[in-house]
């Protein structure tokens, strides 16, 4: 084991040992699963002398998560060994991810499926810790509701969430994203042939990108109305400049030797653009597309704070906060986060298919 793995195993086992000793002060039949986890965790200190497989760490993380979740409400207030068990379960999950990532590093291609375990374990661990801390420490729901409460709100409000998703993402985000990125790309191609426009439009684009959303959104509402068109306009403003700058930089990525070779072949400007400069600019363009995938969603949601029909993610968030329905606010945040992540992932998959020749993709 590496020094970090040794340290994690030592701390996790030590906390389980201390927690097991403290648990003797409670009746034996109370919280049996939690005490069993502490006992097994204390016994796992044997790994410091006897090599054990990494899957034991995964099993310990799962056992610890189930143990602390089932012990919620058994101890009021939660004793010290309960929190020791939670920290130990988190450390076992960390140790499992650390060892798995090191084991997969030499052969990432051959173990792509196992590699998905790393973000899954990381995400599930965050949810378990969130659930246990909010319920075990009796955190007021107005401050931070537990994930179980948020999930219950999601399942009971599917029609409302779906209508908000359609209004914000399928209309404002996608249309504004397509227009903003498309305009940025076309303008970059046009100014590439003119040093005058390049010197004049790039500073102007920088100025527009620096405009605050809270100042632009009310103006767009006055210009385009309260429906999704004004939110799409805000998205266009937010996504235009990153695409413009990245495309201009990408068009200049081709080396002078490669351009001289195209001139030797008597290639025209458009032939050089299509066969050399645009392929060289593809990684830059996709970087802009990935950046804009998150900016577009943020811009649309914030723009809905300043005027919208009675539907939309931003409208729902601002309204439910005023009503102190924090679980609904977190439900909208969860839907937005999942939608944004999937949108980013789709663009990344398209990038891998288009720029398969690039070293960053070939080595992934």
TrEMBL record:
Membrane topology type: Multi-pass membrane protein
Keyword Transport tagged: yes
Transmembrane segments: 55-75, 81-100, 112-130, 169-191, 203-226, 232-254, 295-317, 329-350
Keyword Membrane carried by entry: yes
Pfam entry (one): BPD_transp_1
Keywords: Cell membrane, Membrane, Transmembrane, Transmembrane helix, Transport
GO cellular component, one term: plasma membrane
Gene3D superfamilies registered for this protein in UniProt: MetI-like (1.10.3720.10)
Subcellular location(s) per record: Cell membrane
Superkingdom of this protein's organism: Bacteria
Stored InterPro entries: MetI-like, MetI-like_sf
GO terms, biological process: transmembrane transport
UniProt domain ABC transmembrane type-1: residue ranges: 166-351
Family: Belongs to the binding-protein-dependent transport system permease family.
Protein name according to UniProt: NitT/TauT family transport system permease protein
Species: Devosia limi DSM 17137
Organism lineage: Bacteria, Pseudomonadati, Pseudomonadota, Alphaproteobacteria, Hyphomicrobiales
């Amino acid at each position: 084991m590496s020094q970090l793995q040794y340290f994690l195993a030592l701390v996790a086992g030590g906390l389980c040992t201390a927690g097991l000793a403290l648990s003797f002060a409670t009746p034996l039949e109370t919280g049996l699963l939690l005490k069993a986890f502490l006992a097994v965790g204390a016994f796992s200190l044997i790994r410091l002398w006897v090599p054990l497989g990494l899957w034991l760490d995964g099993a310990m993380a799962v056992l610890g998560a189930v143990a602390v979740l089932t012990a919620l409400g058994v101890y009021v207030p939660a004793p010290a060994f309960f929190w020791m068990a939670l920290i130990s379960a988190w450390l076992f999950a960390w140790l499992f991810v650390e060892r798995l990532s090191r084991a997969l590093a030499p052969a990432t291609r051959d173990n792509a499926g196992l590699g998905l375990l790393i973000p899954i374990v990381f995400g599930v661990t965050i949810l378990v810790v969130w659930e246990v801390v909010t319920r075990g420490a009796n955190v007021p729901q107005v401050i931070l509701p537990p994930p179980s409460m948020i999930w219950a709100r999601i399942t009971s409000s599917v029609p409302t969430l779906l209508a908000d998703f359609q209004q914000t993402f399928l209309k404002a985000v996608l249309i504004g994203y397509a227009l903003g990125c498309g305009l940025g790309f076309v303008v970059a191609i046009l100014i590439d042939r003119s040093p005058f426009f390049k010197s004049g439009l790039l500073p102007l684009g920088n100025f527009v990108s620096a405009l605050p959303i809270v100042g632009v959104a009310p103006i767009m509402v006055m210009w385009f109305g309260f429906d999704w068109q004004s939110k799409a306009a805000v998205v266009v403003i937010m996504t235009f400049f990153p695409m413009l700058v990245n495309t201009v930089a990408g068009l200049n990525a081709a080396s002078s030797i490669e351009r001289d070779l195209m001139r030797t072949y008597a290639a025209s400007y458009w032939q050089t653009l299509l066969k050399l400069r645009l392929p060289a600019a593809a990684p830059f363009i996709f970087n802009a597309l990935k950046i804009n995938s998150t900016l577009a969603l943020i811009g649309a949601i914030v723009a809905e704070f300043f005027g919208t029909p009675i539907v939309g993610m931003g409208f729902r968030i601002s309204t439910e906060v005023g009503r102190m329905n924090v679980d609904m606010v977190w439900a909208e945040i969860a839907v937005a986060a999942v939608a944004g992540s999937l949108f980013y992932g789709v663009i990344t998959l398209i990038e891998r298919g288009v720029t398969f020749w690039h070293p960053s993709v070939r080595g992934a």
